[in-house]
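User: I'm curious whether this sequence folds into something compact or stays loose and floppy. Could you predict its structure so I can see for myself?
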Amino acid sequence: MKKYPVIIIALFIVLFASINIATAFNSYEEGTTASLRTEDIAQADTAEDEWEIFEEKNPGVVDVGKLSVDGDGRYRARYDHQADEYFQDYRIRLGFGVTLDDQADLYLRLNTGTHQVGDQQQDNTLFDIAQLTVAPNILPGTTFNFGKVELPFQTTSTLLFDTDEYTAEGMSTSYFTVNDSRTISGFASAGYFNDVMNGGQVGFQFGDKTYVVGAIGYYDFQDASTYREAMAEIGYNESSIYGDYVVTVGDNVVSWLAGVKLGIGDVTIDYNYREIDQKSPMADVDFPFDNGHAVSVTVPTGVQNLDIVLTHYADWQVSQNQSIGGIIYTF
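Assistant: Here's the prediction. I'll summarize afterward.
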């Protein structure tokens, strides 16, 4: 029964999008041809080239009906050193985005495959995102999301939220602001996700190439605990140091994480240590222990957008180790 409202919203969105797309593509053909001189059209080898020329001559035009496609594919093998066991999982995600008008976008993402959680394999959800985003012109910097949406919270780690793996049904809103010098920005977000959780976050970012990020948040999980969080990251280009501090409300127990990321050429090395007193329901699904170390190395293969990722988890106090090796392709 809980899924019916989301299904109804999704059907309405698809119907609305279909009408807008049909209208938009007709307007696109007529608008492009009518707005270009004959010599401009002659220079365009494809419809996409023609549209780019149209955009240059008509700055500020919204690409109504324009379709974007993205996604990724991943294969991984995990080895449990103590049990001497191997596990495998794979994931393929394909996302479609379309601009409905100058204030609304629709994004749908298919997700297929399996995911290894402990010694259990879980099937991925068919649609892990079916999201309508509205950015009202009268509220600059503000967006509203409805449907099965991405988590709106900014993160420095996966201690509380693994935003690459988890989405949720409900609604959220986010606000970002930038001052005139474009060096300091503030952000705030809040979400209500049916019977899963609700919460909010406020924070700031100072700088761009060299930057400092900080935020605090409060999150109430319906069938679990309530958490207060403080996080921070200091970085330069592709390198940073980061930390996450989480207090479980009521029990007053603490979980924390500290790490460092190094970008060396095209290679990224990420190391962190964490101690988890009470694990969040949306925390890192790959980290197998309560406490311990995690080190990950991402190496490009030389094939565009294809990377090798090697990760090792260790809890030396109880002599437990797990390793993951995989390849991931993004587009």
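Summary: The longest helix spans residues 4-35. The radius of gyration is 22 Å.
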